[in-house]
## 1
Amino acid sequence: MTTSTHRCALSVNVNKVALLRNTRHLGIPGVVKAAQICLTAGVQGITVHPRPDARHIRSNDVSDLAALLKNWPQAEYNIEGNPTQNLMDFIREFRPHQATFVPDSEEQFTSNVGWNLPADMDRLRPLIAECKALGVRVSLFMDPNPAAMPFVAELGADRIELYTETYANAYGTDTEEQVLAGFTATAQAALGLGLAINAGHDLNRNNLTRFLRAVPGVQEVSIGHAFIADALELGYTQTVGEYLQCIQDAYD
Ligand SMILES: CC(=O)[C@@H](O)[C@H](O)COP(=O)(O)O
Ligand SMILES: NCC(=O)COP(=O)(O)O
């Protein structure tokens, strides 16, 4: 989903608001409050990753944000997770605009790898079909690898989410161009197969514009860790403006 103002949608991941909230029994900082301020400031979506250990986003957060987003029909709800663990229960109950399948193990520190295709295809196929039958778009979290794109298309997924940590690590170094080329080739392969492109993980105000200028057709970036870190310094509203400007700068 993109607006006329920004060709690429910004979906704020509020995992880290929940992480801070969970360190006391006071209910602050509020996850719904954060989402509401970001939506008011112009973000086009909210993302959550309710991990099985509930280290940050909990079931009631998923429910509360679903209720909030009913008041924001132009915005999208993206729920991430491993569909062989707890994700599908959330998809069945809340039917978000998008489910992002991520192959994380339960205790994993953070997401650090995309799906292994074709090896994972048999277990993903029925889960993708179920999401589609529920009217939920499916995005597969993928490493930059053009050769894997035909398998994504064969599975009937709608989008890939390019896992961008390797780009973030290369940004500003002498390997940046080479690493970006892999993302560009993967995006071109995906687009050629009718897949749409999302991107996320370790994107920030410094590396976002360069990525969007180099990689064609990115429709949504989901950004959490760096965004919330910036918001601690600048506030949510100013941070939204800064990230939307980074996106706009990519297309000017
Ligand atoms: C899939 C991905 O790269 C991130 O969206 C992920 O949700 C990060 O999870 P943590 O916020 O638990 O690090
Ligand atoms: N899918 C990426 C996401 O939602 C947030 O990742 P990060 O910005 O917290 O690394």
Note: The radius of gyration is 17 Å.
## 2
Amino acid sequence: MREYWSSLASLLGVLAFCQSLLQVIFPPELRFASLKFFNRIFNVFSSYCYFDITEIDGVNTNELYNAVQLYLSSSVSISGSRLSLTRALNSSAITFGLSNNDCIYDSFNGVAVLWEHVVSPRQTQTFSWRPLPEEKRGFTLRIKKKDKSLILDSYLGFIMEKANDIRRKNQERLLYTNSRGGSLDSRGHPWESVPFKHPSTFDTLAIDPEKKKEIMEDLKDFANGQSFYQKTGRAWKRGYLLYGPPGTGKSSMIAAMANYLGYDIYDLELTEVHNNSELRKLLMKTSSKSIIVIEDIDCSINLTNRKKRNGSGPRNNYYDPEMRCGSGSAASVGGEDGNNSITLSGLLNFTDGLWSCCGSERIFVFTTNHIEKLDPALLRSGRMDMHIYMSYCSFPALLILLKNYLEYEEADLEDEILKEFKEVIDKSEMTPADISEVLIKNKRDKDKAVRELLGTLKLKAERKLKNGGLMREKNSDDMEEEEQEKRALGSPKEGSDIEDSNCKEGEDDEEKIK
Ligand SMILES: Nc1ncnc2c1ncn2[C@@H]1O[C@H](COP(=O)(O)OP(=O)(O)OP(=O)(O)O)[C@@H](O)[C@H]1O
Ligand SMILES: [Mg+2]
């Protein structure tokens, strides 16, 4: 034991001697430079290179530091053993982080990299306009020298993109409205926002699975299509027109789109916009990665100012538009480019003009119950790229509703019942909203819900059939009456196609009589 202590003492003596020798050779003023020198020599022979990404770059927060932190949070949660947890303001999720002075390996395109989270106490604060944190934080990236170009060219860009995605997913999304009219808030913002918490998703949306898949793919292609839009010289935006009877899921579809892509929604109330320049200002204040919605476009604005219409267009099949729109609800129109009103050309510029490109990655969605009332200029492709018909409930859509509301899979239902559903569903012309109501009402007793739904569908189908028959009878009675009137008057009905041929026949007869 004594020997052990004596050898330890002599070792300490040697160390003390070496230290004093080093101090003589490298006085304090040279020590830093000599360390740097040795470091350089070490670096020349090392196969690695290192990049420091500090949290604060001068006085500004380093965006790249935040991005790396977020990016690593997505992989660290799986592989790390000691993690730091944070929940940012306005965030809906907890993020994992690398603990102080901990390391994690990552790989990119088959290249391995090492990240170290370096935290050290900050030395006495020099004067600064803004208080600095007590700790100096930063990430050190270690990569092989031969991989340097690959990593710097694409890896850091990839991290920034990924971090933006994560931020968007974690961040509470917002629903904006311009219901304040043209007035601005204290920050000069024309939009008011509330957290957007609509639970509708593509899983809960009852539409044909084929159609659903097509829409989802289109949305994904759009969201990932930055390089495509750049390459083809197109503005990075897309338009969807959702049309169909009320209660078929148009608004639910918009919410599902926003939830799927993680976009904010701007619900534009056109009746609150006073003129085209106000519309443009609203557009300029929307952010990228957002859906700009105009609901019931046929009711929001008088769309007849670009091209005169004769007013005798096809009547709606669903319900009386006057009841829904009200006579004075449409935004007024003051001539082709009125100063005190919003015009169709203003709206077209909003979606398609140069101003529409002042941001990027934006989706425009218009909804209507009456597509036939819209100006063709609004419908041309490029403006509204996809026209989506939201139909009455079909059999595949019904199966989705049964699963959502009653947790019934197709296999849980008897073949006989499925067959009956298949037979009546299309004839009944019931909307998913109507069907949901029946299911919600009876959700405590699933079998009763199915029975009652089947009964309602049959009843509706019968009524439709009867009404259809009556209409047909009425039409044929009307035609019969018209024929009789014609015969009594001895002249054909004005303006009909038959008119010309009847005239000719009449003339021929007269000639024959002569
Ligand atoms: N396709 C659908 N899938 C799932 N639920 C639906 C669907 N369509 C309607 N619903 C249900 O009916 C309710 C009304 O639907 P929604 O508001 O989306 O209809 P809409 O087509 O926008 O009607 P409107 O034309 O009157 O605005 C929703 O709350 C939703 O629960
Ligand atoms: Mg709606």
Note: The first helix runs from residue 2 to 25.
